[in-house]
Specification:
Length: 306
Amino acid sequence: MRRTICILVALALVFGITANAGDNGAKSSPRGIALSELWEDTALTQGLPHSFRIYQRFPLSNGLTEQLRLYLVNPREWKTCDRRPAVVFIHGGGWGGGDPDQWFPQCRYFALRGIVGASVQYRLTTGTNNIDTCVADCQSAIAYLRRHAAELGVDPKRIAVVGESAGGHLAAALGTVTVDAGLGESVPDALVLLNPITDLTTRWGERLGISAKQFSPLHHISKRTPSTLLIHGKADSVVDIRHSRAFHQRMLELGNQSRLIEVPGADHAFAVFGFGPASGNILAIVEIDRFLSALGYLTGAPIPFK
């Protein structure tokens, strides 16, 4: 039955019935959209299927279970038989704060562009949890997405991960530390790092002590590190831009694909809805769109903003 549905849809496309999302990218909206329209329950986003998967469970001392969720936003035309690229967002917050819903607007944008958007919930560094716990959870999330790609309508060979600040560290770790650990199922196919922490031998890794280097992405870059886009504010008052510059430089030294965009006047979290200015939010979305388009994950121009 699933195969029949896919064949019928394919025939419909051949004979000129055009869906909103083309092959892997929606045609640009005929009008500019406002950032506010990417919030839930707007006329623009109401038709996008929202769901979540529990990708990990942990028993608690009180007999209950802690559940970690992978939140998903699919294009309107999404089907389980699809093989669409996915873009997965990892929130920041110093590993001890933040929330996956900070990136739901971006998930909706990319669903409108025809690919699957996802946002990861991971255990925060409270109690006995440390940064290595966050890394392990993100590894599990990507592995889950790959293992269940066939039922989620995702292409397991086209999974991009976007991380911001501490989430940028976690995303970078997936493409470096995770590679060295031999956990290929958890390694993304492309990275986008926004104001990332890449060097844990600085003050950022003090809580890890002698294990800091083990989880420091800068020290695990190899020729197997995926294609990477880095975007960092030149006025970042929280994470020094040298984190991005050093990562980018090392990538180039190894002959890897890497691009660094330094944003004049931009402070930390400029890309996060509710924290950065609208111009910063839009810049990040558009540059991520262009990066994914260059990799063949999207087709057509970015959706214009007004």
